[in-house]
Amino acid sequence: MTFGKKFNTANLVLVFSILVLVIVVAVPVILIFITAFFENGKFNLAGVMKVLSDPDTYQALLNSVIIATGTTLLSTTIGTFFAWLVARTDLPFKKTMKALFLVPFMLPSFIGALAWKVLLSSRAGYINKLLMAMFGLENAPIDIMSLGGIIAIESMYLFPFVFLQVAGALERMDPTLEESARISGAGLGTITRRITLPLVMPSILAGALLVALYSLSHFGVPSILGTEKGIYNIPTKIYERIYASGGSFGAIRVGTILSMILVIAAALILKLQDVLLKKGQYQIIAGKSMRPMVLKLRGLKVPLLIISIIYICITVVLPTVTIFLVGGLKTYGLTFELKNMTWNNYLKIFQWKMTKDAIWNSIYLSLGAAFVTMLAGTMISYVIVKMKVRGKFLLQFLGVLPFSLPGTVIALGVILTWSGKFGVNLYNTPWIIFVAYIARYMAFSIKSNSASLSQVSDSLEEASRACGATHWQSLKNIVIPLIKPGMISAFFLIFLPALRELTTSVLLYGPTTRTIGVAIYALNEDGETVRAAALASIALIIIFVGETIIRKFLARLDQPRAKVQE
Amino acid sequence: MSQLKLVDVTKRFGDVIAVDKLNLDVEKGECFSFLGPSGCGKTTTLRMIAGFEDLDEGELSVDGKVISSSFKKYYLPPEQRDFGMVFQAFAVWPHLTVRDNVAFPLQIRRRPKQEIAERVKMALQSTGLTHREENYPGKLSGGEQQRIALARAIAINPKVMLLDEPLSNLDAKLREEMRFEIKDLQKKFGFTIIYVTHDQAEAMALSDRMLVMDHGVVQQVGKPLDIYNKPANKFVFSFIGLSNFIPVDISEGKATIKGAAGVASQAAPADAGLRTLMACRPSDIDFFERDGGADPHAVEATVARRTYLGDIIDYKLVAGESELRVQKPRREKGPLEGERCRIRFNRTLWYSAE
CATH assignment of B2-238? Predict the structure, then answer.
């Protein structure tokens, strides 16, 4: 490589990567840190302590911990049980059931929460009303707008994290590990207890920690089910403070202090995960594919299948149907009878400026952010994986840092960076959301691109150079075609979640720059439940169609994928 | 006395017959190998003996007691068969120490603490792992991991030991070493071994008797040397060691190679058909001295390639329309590349060219 010339490809890529990561990630994070700990240029720990000891914020902190703990325990139990059922028993229709258990991933959890509020709020929940009428009760039997309710609903939509990890481990585990226990004389119960469970424990914990990480900084469900009842967690508290003060610097400062707690908690969780993975990740993957040991359920076969189907109906079908039905009601609170239904709400979504704008904003912001982040992520990954430069670890650190930064924190950092402090004021423009999306999803892009880049052997690029191609020509003709599948999947890994994003955009939107998530949230806040549901229905259709097309597309892409491993 | 008896054992996977009517008696204390290419049904047979696969037809018994029977729909679960088993991928439990791995089968059988300690100690000593007992397997080498698996299998002092390609994940040198260790363990404890492998040298070195299998069908059963010297068919001949199959013309007991001067053999079977293959191992072809006498058996050939393989030299010869492979010790003087030479075939076998 000729590093002598000033503007060769390698140097350009390097400089660009550093620039992007510094502007998009490093500056916002440093600003949050400075804002939290420094006041008027002086280190101010007392101010931090004051915010933390405020009963209001303390309660939010406590709620965050309670919700995250509860959600983690519940999701892990549900996820592990269903994973075992699908991977290790003779449950009928296993493949279909496995796919169905992943559907809750598609459903944005705040839309799920909205549906459950409609069904189970103590005041007007349809199921509550039904139960009261059936059993002649005076009070609603279930109140979903409580800590317990928030935990239940979050678990419904987060358990696939655990499910995926554990099912994967159980399926890929070398069956001879269990067979050798059998031939040693152990029965199925003993094997499960002493061999299987300890071996998949790292996967269970990894899934559980992901859930904890996500739940701790989750905005959607607590905002819809908690805010009205005065139940706040850290992200909703930050939002409430900033919103109530009209975006004052004092409120943003409190926000940054609370953010530091989220960042520290996330860092601890990720560190713990790292330690666990290093210590406990056994080589249990089988070399050749063999059928794992399967438990015959016999008499329990049908009951367990029914339980699984009921679970999917409750978590997926019921809320989806509810959202669509409520979206078609003439007025919220009416019964679901044909005479009370109308198509008008759906049509109005496309006529009304606020919702029309929201759909358009979400689509072009997520498309744009996905495209830019994909390209930038490819370059940064190239530097991290393929180039030998000093200080690379810093790039790597900055690249994956946003993964541990909650959406609320990223929003605050972006506000601090792009509100005129450095001569650029993007506040109240769509660009601020655009920049925030790039920061938030950069880690996804780097992960996906790094994975496919590390599978491209160095010798392929070297062979191209040896054939007389320049560095740029080798990249263009050899490397990029080989990593294209990784780039495309990075694009969708960003586009799909960005389309339904709420946590970050809710802190950044202006009068004309609402996204779909924000619009649904705002409508719900204003008591426009029917309109919120109608927009949510359309969002669900867009998400579902998008997912289906993309999955088909990716499946086709995967087949002729070139073998480029060493 | 026959210890393990297989009667008409058959296994199908869908339309594929993995094992077809296998009958076998394995003697007590015998080391018996199943040899064959991958997918020949040898591992399936072993897994049926272990109890991991049911039989579609047939019966299996140990010491006269039926353990699997398709007729009675009776299958003793693997955990009750009291066999020892060693797997190709070691299958040692990474979350347990070496000692706990070996103690597991004894703990399952609820043996007294004292006895467990003694037996574990004995098993670890026999496999040379005493200094490793506190280690976790993940930190140990492949050879050591396979020793753990062996120690675990012998801990309960099983009557029958099942080994499923136990050495194929090890490097060549270690593989050879472990062969002898397994043999020594057998001598010490006297268990019967069923050994599955695709490596003919391994099977030869270890077995008292062996069985060659292809496509689920038994090709030959016998002592290693008998199988090497008297292969029952073309498949067995080609699977056991290197082989030449040379198309020959036969008339009046004389076999000639098309296009090559000289007689390849004067002892060809008279009843052989027109399409006949003469089979010969590369080491069983001798060079004549270039100025040697006029032997009527000699065939003329040209050296197309000559390769050093360390201790031996490998020749590719062209004789008429046939290509031959010859291997000779390095110290034996042979022709150079491009030279013409005369060769003689020792030990030939005759197969029809289907």
Answer: 3.40.50.300
